[in-house]
Amino acid sequence: NLTCLEIEPAIRDAAQIFSYMVRGEGLGDRRLALVFEDGRHWLATTRDNFDVVVSEPSNLYVAGTVNLYTAEYYRLIRARLVPGGVFCQWMHYYGADIADARTVARTVAAVFPSVAAWIHLGGDFFLLASERPLTVDLDRIRACLALEPIRTDLAKIGYTTPAAVAAHYLMNPAELSGFAGPGRPCTDDRPGLEYTAARIIDTSARTDANRQILYGWHPLSPIPLARERAADRIALGAAAEAAQEMRRAEAEYGAFTRLAPGNAEGWWRLARLHHWLQEDDAARALIRTGLAHAPGDARLLALRREIALTGSASTR
């Protein structure tokens, strides 16, 4: 069952305009309880507990929204989750200062011991938080993608494989902590985001700069998987490449070489990636290591010849 909190009743009527975009019964689904109430007040008064809580309020620059981005609010959510439950906080990185994104991350991490970041190219990022370590279960994603209308809806935006979904994983808890950095969280008595967010002018240049910072955060660790399989690492690396997340691809291909050092594909993909990044010294070293594990591999030898012909050297 799903409980949806909405403070403005007119949204129910407006939602009908976009019903063509989503298959299934939508607001008419009998499993859905639509409650018109202030979400924070409702959470403070309900006795229900939940497996998942998703908070997607208005943008931070909307007056009053900050009450749904404070540590007190997150502690309220944590108290309403079942053991092992998951909380998801949405935030925009369009029309936002990257310092505000760091504050949101810092505030969620001040309440939940395990927080991972996910990102979407269009301008949104998501913090998944829990009391327990969070891993990515590719088998479970695969099972969900086999269900209708999930399969058809996600296919519309290019999510047809578990790796395509997981490619949007951005930072594990340690990496997120480094991104958030030191400083005060946002609290009810010191709601700094109320004042900083409203001063930001929304421009495409700002969004692009924020995207570069978020996608470019590294070094990265391989995505924590519920089950470790070498083939999944190759799929994750390829999906990251397709999404232009080259450092994520590097982490995944690196994990493959550790799991299957005798398989030349991992060494070739890593070396090819560094060659594309104009890091040919690193590419040559990877080719040598790969050939030591898989002597005579045709792809590694061909890449070595290609690098020799271009005569390039590391520039980054």
Structure overview:
The chain is α/β, with parallel strands linked by helices and 316 residues long. It is built from 15 helices and 7 strands. It has helices spanning 10-15, 39-45, 71-80, 98-111, 138-145, 150-155, 162-166, 173-180, 193-196, 204-215, 230-242, 246-259, 264-276, 280-293, 298-310; strands spanning 2-6, 32-36, 50-55, 81-92, 114-120, 124-130, 169-171. The strands form 2 sheets. The protein has a 5-stranded mixed β-sheet. β1, α1 and β2 (32-36) form a beta-alpha-beta unit. The longest helix is centred in the first third of the chain and has 14 residues, at 98-111. It is globular.
Summarize the structure.
This protein is of the alpha/beta class. The protein is built from 15 helices and seven strands. Helix content is 47%, strand content 14%.
Computed CA radius of gyration, to the nearest angstrom: 22 Å
- Fraction of helical residues: 40-55%
Sketch the major β-sheet: 5 strands, mixed
Helix and strand run: EHEHEHEHEEHHHEHHHHHHHH
How far the N terminus sits from the C terminus, by CA atoms, comes to 51 Å
Arithmetic mean of pLDDT: 92
Query: How do the strands line up in the largest sheet?
Result: 3-4-6-5-7
Number of helices: 15
Strand content: 5-15%
Structural class: alpha/beta
**Unreliable runs:** none
Shape: globular
Give me the count of strands: 7
